[in-house]
Design goal:
Family: Belongs to the Dps family.
CATH topology: Ferritin
Number of helices: 5
Order of helices and strands: HHHHH
Number of strands: 0
Helix content: over 70%
Oligomer: single chain
Strand content: under 5%
InterPro entries: DPS_DNA-bd, DPS_DNA-bd_CS, Ferritin-like, Ferritin-like_SF, Ferritin_DPS_dom
Protein name: DNA starvation/stationary phase protection protein
Pfam family, one: Ferritin
Organism: Caldichromatium japonicum
Radius of gyration: 17 Å
CATH superfamily: Ferritin, core subunit, four-helix bundle
CATH architecture: Up-down Bundle
C-alpha cells in the first residue's frame, strides 16, 4: 500500500450510509456556522436598553456554536468525507437567510430564534439517515445539538414576552 492509497473505513456503516449522513451533517455544519456568524454580528452591533443582557447572551451562544462547528466537522471527517469550510459552500448549503441590514435588538432576537429553530429542524432531518445506519455517535451529536438549540430558542423567545 503506497502512501497515496486510502485505507478503507470499516466502522460498520456502509459507504452509501456514510455519504448520506455526511451530506446531512454538512448542511447542519453550514447552518451552525451561519448562525455563529449572525450571532457574532449581533453581539457586536446590538444597541438599546437590553444591550448588556443581549451582548453577553449572544457571546455565550456564539462561543458554544464555535465549539459545535468543530464537533460536526470532525464527525463528517470520521465518516470519511471532507468537511465543507468556505463561505461559498455554506451559502449554498445553509437554510438560514443571510442579511446585511442593521436590525434593532428585538428583530435580532426574532431572527436568532428563527435561526436556532432552523438548526433544530436541520438536525432532526439528518436523524433518520443516522438511525437507519445505526450510527449512534451521529445520533448522540444530533440529539445534543437539538437540545441546545431548542433551549436557546426558548431563552431568546422568553426575552420577547412582556
Amino acid at each position: 500500500m503506497t502512501h497515496h492509497d486510502k485505507m478503507p473505513i470499516d466502522i460498520g456503516i456502509s459507504e452509501e450510509h456514510r455519504a448520506a449522513i455526511a451530506e446531512g451533517l454538512s448542511r447542519l455544519l453550514a447552518d451552525t456556522y451561519t448562525l455563529y456568524l449572525k450571532t457574532h454580528n449581533y453581539h457586536w452591533n446590538v444597541t438599546g436598553p437590553m444591550f448588556n443582557t443581549l451582548h453577553l447572551m449572544f457571546e455565550t451562544q456564539y462561543n458554544e456554536l464555535a465549539l459545535a462547528v468543530d464537533l460536526i466537522a470532525e464527525r463528517i471527517r470520521a465518516l470519511g468525507h471532507p468537511a465543507p469550510g468556505s463561505y461559498k459552500t455554506y451559502a449554498r448549503l445553509t437554510s438560514i437567510p443571510e442579511e446585511d441590514d442593521q436590525p434593532n435588538a428585538e428583530e435580532m432576537i426574532r431572527r436568532l430564534v428563527a435561526g436556532q429553530e432552523t438548526v433544530v429542524r436541520t438536525a432532526r432531518s439528518v436523524f433518520p439517515a443516522a438511525e437507519q445506519a445505526s450510527d449512534q455517535p451521529t445520533m448522540d451529536l444530533l440529539t445534543a445539538r437539538m437540545q441546545i438549540h431548542e433551549k436557546n430558542a426558548w431563552m431568546l423567545r422568553s426575552l420577547l414576552e412582556s
